[in-house]
Amino acid sequence: MVQVTQSSKVVVLTGAGISAESGIKTFRASDGLWENHAIEDVATPYAWERDPELVWNFYQGRRNQLQDVEPNPAHRALVTLEKFLGENFLLVTQNVDDLHSKAGSKNLIHMHGELRILRCEECHETFDMMEQEHLTSEYVPCPSCHSQRLRPHIVWFHEMPLQMSEIYAAVEECDVFMTIGTSGHVYPAAGLIDVAKQAGAHCIGINLEPPMNYDQHDEFHQGKAGELLPDFVEQIIS
Ligand code: OAD
Q1: Ligand 1 proximity of 209 Cβ (cutoff 6 Å)
Q2: Which helix (H) or strand (E) is 80 found in, with range?
């Protein structure tokens, strides 16, 4: 098992699996549906154009769910790792929930956006809006330019993930790259491990099942993140 010192540079990529034990459904569950919807019906710009009410209510459901979920031991283990490494740690998540920040992670990039945040399509400002008045089926107008409705600050299919240049810069110079709870289906996230490998990083995976990019990992630990990660972090930093 790899040892991490305080000068090691570590990038961690998380996906839906890390929040599964907190009660949030993963994307690629066996029924192929996300909370009873086909992903293309709710997670594309075309869906928002065609049926904004359906998309709005779907995301309002996900936003409301945030009030009922708590971080699990896997989220907290990554806070321990960040406290040990300080600035040498970067957490990149594909998740749109707020469980990493709720647990206390600081150096964190939400590459697929955040449920907490709404964005104006006219003036492009973003707003953290989680008061009860922002969580109903009524559209929320833009407080800045007063356009009629904000959209979810979510990276939908066919849209560009966020902060990719910062992510690539960190992955290109990391010593250890970890993937946790991600199936390796969705690019560019699934390709970050290739960049890490090219940079000579040691690549570790923790997942319930072998992911699509299993072969790229130098070390793979199969099981639930909430059960494996706390001990794993203690071992690599001791
Ligand atoms: P997926 O739903 O594709 O994969 C979740 C992975 O987590 C699967 O490989 C599961 O086996 C694993 N898993 C489930 N429970 C686990 C547990 N308790 N511990 C560890 N692993 C567990 O989710 P992502 O890979 O995150 O994109 O999906 C990537 C992107 O596809 C999402 O960010 C989203 C989606 O479409 C956008 O919204 C743009």
Answers
A1: yes
A2: helix 73-85
